[in-house]
Amino acid sequence: MRKPADTSVDLHPVLAERWSSRAYDVNATIGADDLTAILEAGRWAPSAMNGQPWRFMVAHRGDKAFETIIGTLNGFNKVWTPNAIVFIAVLARMTNEDGSPRPTALYDVGLAAAMMTVEGHHRGYNIHHMSGFDHDAFTSSFGLTSDLAPIAILAVGKQVSADQVANEAVRERELAGRERLPLTELVIQTH
Question: How buried is residue 96: exposed, middle or buried, by Cβ count under 10 Å (0-12/13-18/19+)?
Fold first, then answer.
């Protein structure tokens, strides 16, 4: 299913065609090279002073960690995510080596997640970012140290058409249009 972005100028197809599906093929798999490439894209993202505050946890469908992550998800995310191939939990190291705060950690980690999304789309996977999870439960379940903050969970899957989705709420969201605020509301003019 295609939902190209309605843009004021042409964008690269990988960007214009990217959107967050919830309709995944439960039988799909991911090859080691594709998964490694997605993670490498995140590894090579830009970061302030090359601090690389990102950390990635990978949980494959069928693994205990995958089920643990589903248990931390909020509401509707629990409905559609079991068909994902893998989850990539994106974590941020919130402090520098000397213990001082790392003020750009969230920005840097967002860049890494964006790069993984682009690489995943380029390789034919759909990556859906989720912040709708119990961050405290996630931290506790995986025994994260206090300097690591779970930021997002990326569901990676192979998209199927909306008519293959049994859940009506998921199907409706698949068929819904894509919307964004216009640039005129987003760009602050300077003089």
Answer: middle
